[in-house]
Amino acid sequence: MATTHELTSPRARRSGAHAAPRRGTRWPATLLPAAVALAFTAAQLLLVVAPGLTVLGWDESVYVSQVAPHIPAAFFSAPRARGVPALVAPMVMLTSSTVALRVYLALLSGAALFFALRVWRPLVRPSVLALAGALFASLWVTLLYGPQAMPNLWVALIGLAAVGWFLRAAAPGPVDRAAFAGLGLSFVALTLLRPHDAAWLALPLGIAALLARGGRRTLLLLAVLAAGVVLGGAQWAAEAVTSYGGVLERLRRSSEIEGGFGWHVAVADQLSTLDGTSLLCRPCDAVWEHRADAVWWFVLPVLAAAGTVLGRPAAVRGVRALPALCGLSLALPYLLFIDYAAPRFLLPAYALLTLPAAACLARLPALVRPALRPAVLVAVAVALAAQLAGQQVVLHRAVRIAATGNGDYLRIATRLHQLGVLPPCLVTGPMAGPVGYQARCASGQVAGHNGDMTAAEVARAALHRPVAVIMPPHRLPPAYARSWPSRPLTGLRHHHGYRVLLSPR
């Protein structure tokens, strides 16, 4: 007989196969996922925001500038999508405070975790749900990006909900209209956030719908998936036509910016980012240090695979297998087809893998003799405590490094204001986007992936407004600024040796 920690399918629920465990569930157990979500929000505020991550990062500055009043919008490159600007707009329209934005996102991500887990409530025991949520929410990369204006965590949480909605919609019996609506809306949101991630999640779900051979229900599932992707991607496609020369040209440019979509095994690159010292590895020449910090990365897929195999009956194994397969699908492009790495890229995969992994951990005591069960429980508890402690060490390191790097953007902006670079103004060169956001200046680049203006346009801008060219160490000035006064950017904690060239006017 399945234990009270088993995942259960809608068919098993209706047939009464698990009726006894359901009646034995105590009402406080249903509150466990809510407690995990509250703890997730509190941990973000205490461990990420309070220690000083109060300046927007590079990508955050690009996203937030699209909707922030009185701040010129930074260049929006082809791979980006408008989901994050829409997400942050309600708070950004009210206040320019980054702390307020961080608190808003921490509260919102905690609520999103709770509702994503709640979607699975008809399928999964509350205790297993809570364990899965705790496993995912306690990862350092989950906590770090919870209060940040970045898309990956939101893809993870909405993707988790989408797979749950799919399983509920695909279950035999009366049509669950709420599940179909939830599935469609989830894919609208996913495509608004990251269209290519939505496509990689739709792929295994579409295959699962076809394999189910549900006749009319299969067609309905496929139609809802397609409609969600089309509706969510409509704005992206329209913007591609109006701003990038068409959908194919935007896809080509996106691939070019991301280094070309092809066979690039990036497993070692991902491993080098797991110690929190490198939040974007590009080019990825970092040395894999602190190897003990990556043990969980190898254990998680093993537990997920074991959780799938250990399921009883077959319907339960199916409920566990689909999130595992979806997690694998979402991880594949970042492990095999992109030649750079960031720890946040795999957040959607982690969210889905923790469900079968939690089921495995919950099932372990039932697999041994009763006399050994206390020892197994102690071993699991010790392992989880060690994992939690290790994640906190990495989180502290990552927050310190991120806060130091982001703080330099504010320090440079403050220095520019002291030198007379005041709005309306233009900042160009490395770090132009985040520095321009902090200085309330327009930003632009004359080369690279974010190139959006020419050297002649920068020179013309210098005739009627302040222009600052940020220069890294040992770099020759551009031709149009070789006669401009140069000032050192002192007091920087991460970007040493930088200077700024100032337009004469």
Structural account:
With 505 residues, this protein is mostly helical. It has 21 helices and five strands. It has helices at residues 10-15, 19-24, 27-30, 32-49, 58-65, 83-92, 98-119, 126-137, 140-145, 152-170, 177-193, 195-212, 216-243, 247-257, 267-272, 295-309, 314-336, 347-363, 373-418, 432-439, 455-461; strands spanning 426-428, 442-444, 467-471, 486-488, 499-502. A five-stranded mixed β-sheet has the order 2-1-3-5-4, with helices on one face. β1, α20 (432-439) and β2 (442-444) form a beta-alpha-beta unit. α19 crosses α20 (432-439). Mean pLDDT is 91; it is low at 1-24.
Work out the radius of gyration.
25 Å
Average per-residue pLDDT, rounded, comes to: 91
Shape: globular
As a percent range, the share of strand residues is under 5%
H/I helix tally: 21
Order of SSEs: HHHHHHHHHHHHHHHHHHHEHEHEEE
Write down the oligomeric state: single chain
The largest β sheet comes out as: 5 strands, mixed
State the strand order across the main sheet. 2-1-3-5-4
Alpha-carbon distance between the termini?
Answer: 81 Å
How many extended strands?
A: 5
- Structural class call reads mainly alpha
Portion of residues within helices:
55-70%
Taking pLDDT < 50 over at least 5 consecutive residues as the criterion, the unreliable ranges are 1-24
